[in-house]
Amino acid sequence: MRKGSLLIEIIAVLVVLALALGGAMWVRAAVTAPVNNRTVVTASEPKTPLLVDLIPGIKAGVVHLQCPNWQGSAFVIGPNLLVTARHCVENVTNFKITTDDGHVLHATRAISSEKYDLAFIYIDDLTCIANERGTLAHKVVLKPTKLGSIAECQLGQRVITIGSAYGKVNINSVTLGIISGLGRDYDELGEDYHWSMAFQTDSPGHPGNSGCPIFTSDGVVRGILVGGFSPSLIICMPVDLFMDDIEEINRMFIQGRYYHEEEVVGSEYYNYVDDTDYYVVH
């Protein structure tokens, strides 16, 4: 009887272990098993779009900027409004803009912030230049980019740079990198820099990239490329500097009040932050 009881106890233990192991395997399988040909993803795993799916949509808001003596980049932040680097518009009143899909527009008005090397271009006439495109004249609808704060970003976060490296021949070239520095103030290097409140990336940049957007992998623009110390030490101004001013900037262009380069901070019509100086170039 003792041998029989012992054998029964051993069998019972083995059954319990088998059930426990089988349950654990089932639970594990339930977490990772395909459901309708898709793998179940836990809530903690980040969901970011593939670059090949993301890039065609975000580069539609990036344009090539042609000035009489140089070329640069810019991106759309409103129906008629572009943002770029100040040194791309300095002493210029004639801009030729080429969109990602080949439309060509002209603009003649810009305003700038010398302190942060930022500038804004307003396109009064959104009619495509027919003789330069080989089509009948038609209106162009610009696609604004999405803007987001650099305060939401972290050191080491992936970024995407899209711009016209070395000019229109390389319109909207794409490079990848990371945020390699935050909270930079390069004004300490001298009064010619105007790169206070900057951040840094190692996403390659070249002449012609000035004024182009810096995207994070969610498709949001976090900054504007304004210069660099090497092709992989790139300086950017955060879009935080003007995100709250877009309505006022549009109003300045629409009213057409300013016709010379003059300081407009402190005007009764506008309420800019105290340390931002916008100038008209016309």
Describe what you observe in this structure.
With 282 residues, this protein is of the alpha+beta class. It is 19% helix and 31% strand. It has a domain of 96 residues: Trypsin-like serine proteases (Thrombin, subunit H), CATH 2.40.10.10. The strands form 3 sheets. An 8-stranded antiparallel beta sheet has the order 7-6-3-4-5-9-8-17. A 6-stranded antiparallel β-barrel has the order 11-12-13-16-15-14. The protein has a two-stranded antiparallel ribbon with strand order 1-2. Strand 8 and strand 9 form a beta hairpin. The chain is globular. The termini are far apart. The relative contact order is 0.15.
Summarize the structure.
This protein is an alpha+beta fold and 282 residues long. It has four helices and 17 strands.
Give the helix/strand layout.
Elements: H1 2-32, E1 34-35, E2 38-39, H2 51-58, E3 62-66, E4 71-76, E5 81-85, E6 95-98, E7 104-107, E8 109-113, E9 118-122, H3 130-133, E10 146-147, E11 158-163, E12 173-184, E13 198-201, E14 213-216, E15 220-230, E16 233-238, H4 246-255, E17 278-281
Parallel strand pairs: 10-15
Antiparallel strand pairs: 1-2, 3-4, 3-6, 4-5, 5-9, 6-7, 8-9, 8-17, 11-12, 11-14, 12-13, 13-16, 14-15, 15-16
